[in-house]
Amino acid sequence: MGSITPPGSALMRRLRRGAPDRRKRLVLAAVLFLAFLATFAVDWAVSPAADAATSSPSASSSPSTGSASTAEGPCAVSPTNGCIRGTILDSERKPASGVDVDVAGPGGFAQTATTDDAGRWSVTVTTAGQYTVSVDQDSLPKGQYLTDAADADRKVNATLNANVGQIFQLSDQQGATTSDDTSSVSAARAWQQLASGIRLGLLIALASVGLSLIYGTTGLSSFSHGEQVTLGGLLAYVFANQLGWNIWITGIVVTLLCAATGYLQDAAIWRPLRRRRISLTQLMIVTIGLSIAAQYAFQYFFGASTVRIQQGNPETVTFAGLTLTVQSYVAMGIALVVLVGTGLFLAKTRFGRATRAVSDNPALAAASGIDVDRVIRFVWTLAAGLAGLSGVMLGLVLNGVNWQTGLQLLLLMFASVTLGGLGTAYGALVGSMIIGIVVELTNLVLPGDFKYATALVILILILLFRPQGIFGRAERIG
User: Fold this and answer.
1) CA dist 27 → 96, 171, 232 (Å)
2) Segment among 40-49, 351-360, 443-452 with least mean pLDDT
3) How far apart are CA 130 and CA 439, in angstroms?
4) Confidence class of residue 149 from pLDDT cuts 50, 70 and 90?
5) Which of 115, 261, 346, 389 ranks highest by number of CB atoms within 10 Å?
6) HSE (CB half, 13 Å, CA atoms) of 221?
7) Which H/E stretch holds residue 155?
């Protein structure tokens, strides 16, 4: 018969001291989180006014009515004006300079912009509404023509405090390329889409690795993980655009702040719920509710329009027949370095091996002396940080971020994790690369955002023919 621990023993005294200490830590974490929210709210309340004050000359200098005039200087969005901007590339996908672009809109608005040496143009608008963007074909470089003459006039919907982008592609053969021919498959276009797929796969992998580790260590499919991506992009917009921080410092600070939100989430929500043995189904419902709440919070503070982290038109670089923006090359390099570093950490370090052990068998890991709660706390922190970094990179590459950016990518992340194998970080990386490449190559035959439906098709096929994924293990159920 086991002995009963006396109430006055040292063990009981330590246990009684432990509960208040844990409560104090939770209270301190909550206070720090509220302080961060208060600081963010103050910055957000102050920065629009400062931005409007600094950008008012630009807004006032652009006429809203009257005859055509030439736009001077790059456009910068503010609460009082929006921007219509774009790039014109020649048949070799090089910038076309000196091309006139006419913009007409509500109230007799008429303005002409001329492309610079980088092929970029921009026009400032002070009234939201539908505008017509027209390329003056007489100003095109000699021997260059629009791929489709009917494409010279485009309708765009402009809003204040947001950018609307348009890209015109030129051909060296007049009338040789029609609107139907532009969707045809060619080796050059397939090569370009392959590069875009690798770029998309690397950026999705940043978020998918964390999502897979969360599932591996807790068994939870977090539907709020996409909002961590959105949070990273929107915080980068606040620091880099509204507050004028250096983009490199912004990326580091945003990643750390997003990692802190992962830590606080586990401390305030997930660990208490785990201790109460809440079922995974109930926890998944909590993540869905958290996702919806975060989306509406983003929309409340930032609005429904797309915001840009950097205001200038991105510069393009052509290498090996591929034309990508400078931000794309930098983002791909950073993503590759971070993913390799994460893989080496999981494979070579003691804590990384402990993380893999918990992911493989939490009960056995606990019996071996591993602090499972500590590992799970670290996984939530790492996953949120990687997702935040992914949001920053996506905001730069896609030239904008809005309140539902993460939601739009959530299906791609789940498809990547399922394809690679649930709970495996390496599987998430491989799955993300496959999904990214397939989705972008699908754009060769499917128009616009239909390409994202490919991820759903792949997800269904995986569940039908290999539900354990590429690196997953088949398990007997029942």
Assistant:
1) 59, 64, 25
2) 40-49
3) 31
4) low
5) 389
6) 11
7) strand 153-158
SS3 243: coil
Q: Report the largest interatomic distance among the alpha carbons of the chain, rounded to a whole angstrom.
A: 98
Instruction: Report whether pLDDT(36) > 60.
Output: no
**Which tokens sit at 354?**
């402990």
Task: Please report, for residues 17, 120, 259, 317, the alpha-carbon distance to residue 197 in angstroms, rounded to integers and kept in the order given.
Answer: 54, 25, 27, 17
CA-atom Rg of the chain in angstroms: 26
Which are the contacts of 24, defined by CB distance < 8 A and separation ≥ 6? none
Whole-angstrom CA distances from 400 to 82, 250, 299, 436 are 14, 16, 15, 19
The letter for the amino acid at 377 is R
Select from 232, 215, 251 the least CA-distant residue to 420. 215
d(CA 385, CA 389): 6
CA–CA dist 204, 335 (Å, integer): 9
What would the pLDDT profile of 72-105 be if each residue is shown by its tens digit? 457 887 778 888 888 888 766 678 888 989 999 8
Q: How far separated are the first and last CA of the chain, in Å rounded? A: 37
d(CA 240, CA 57): 21
* Per-residue CA distances from 113 to 30, 79, 134, 244, 398 (Å): 51, 22, 10, 26, 23
CB neighbour list of residue 14: distance below 8 Å, 6 or more residues apart: none
pLDDT of amino acid 14: 45
Helix (H) or strand (E) holding 89: strand 82-89
What residues contact residue 4 under an 8 Å CB cut-off, 6+ apart? none
In 10 A of CB 73, how many CB atoms? Answer: 11
Task: Report whether 325 contacts 313 (CB < 8 A).
Answer: no
Hey, what are 162's tokens?
Answer: 């947001």
- How far is it, in rounded angstroms, from Cα 360 to Cα 425? 12
Contact 152, 146 (CB under 8 A): yes
**pLDDT for the residue 467:** 83
Q: Is 16's pLDDT higher than 70?
A: no
**Mean pLDDT of all residues in 18-22:** 51
With a cut of 60, say whether residue 404 has pLDDT above it. Answer: yes
